[in-house]
């Protein structure tokens, strides 16, 4: 599941999320891929808590991405913003420390401009 996909899944209500997890077929892409619905649920709970998501080489070796939600006027997640990079060029810690604050600001600005 992509970082944007996890943002959108984490925004689902519990009933819809569990319905999805009951039917999802998780296909491993790399050795880091989440392989069970239980592990994905745990990951999505973290996304809900922190409000952003990093996927680190789970879809493709060497691909690292970070995503943040974009909210509608009622505070519901409408979309997600994403930055993807080469794991060899940008460390995970750099995504969190350098990219994340800028992305959160961009998300707030976009949400405000779309719905005011």
From TrEMBL:
**GO terms assigned for molecular function:** DNA binding; DNA-binding transcription factor activity
Q: Which InterPro entries match?
A: GAF-like_dom_sf (IPR029016), HTH_MetabolicPath_Reg (IPR050707), Tscrpt_reg_IclR_C (IPR014757)
Its GO biological process terms? negative regulation of DNA-templated transcription
Please name the PROSITE patterns in this protein's record: ICLR_ED (PS51078)
Start and end of every IclR-ED domain?
A: 1-116
What is the name listed in the Swiss-Prot or TrEMBL entry for this protein?
A: Beta-ketoadipate pathway transcriptional regulator PcaR
Specify the species: Pseudomonas syringae pv. coryli
Instruction: State the organism's lineage.
Output: Bacteria, Pseudomonadati, Pseudomonadota, Gammaproteobacteria, Pseudomonadales
């Amino acid at each position: 599941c992509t970082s944007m996909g996890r943002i959108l899944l984490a925004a689902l209500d519990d009933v819809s999320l569990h319905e999805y997890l009951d039917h999802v077929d998780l296909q491993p892409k790399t050795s880091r891929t989440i392989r069970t619905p239980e592990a994905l649920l745990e990951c999505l709970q973290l996304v809900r808590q922190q409000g952003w998501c990093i996927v680190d080489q789970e879809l493709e070796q060497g691909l690292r991405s970070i995503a943040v939600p974009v909210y509608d006027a009622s505070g519901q997640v409408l979309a997600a913003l994403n930055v993807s990079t080469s794991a060899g060029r940008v460390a995970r810690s750099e995504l969190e420390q350098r990219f994340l604050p800028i992305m959160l600001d961009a998300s707030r600005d976009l949400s405000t401009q779309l719905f005011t």
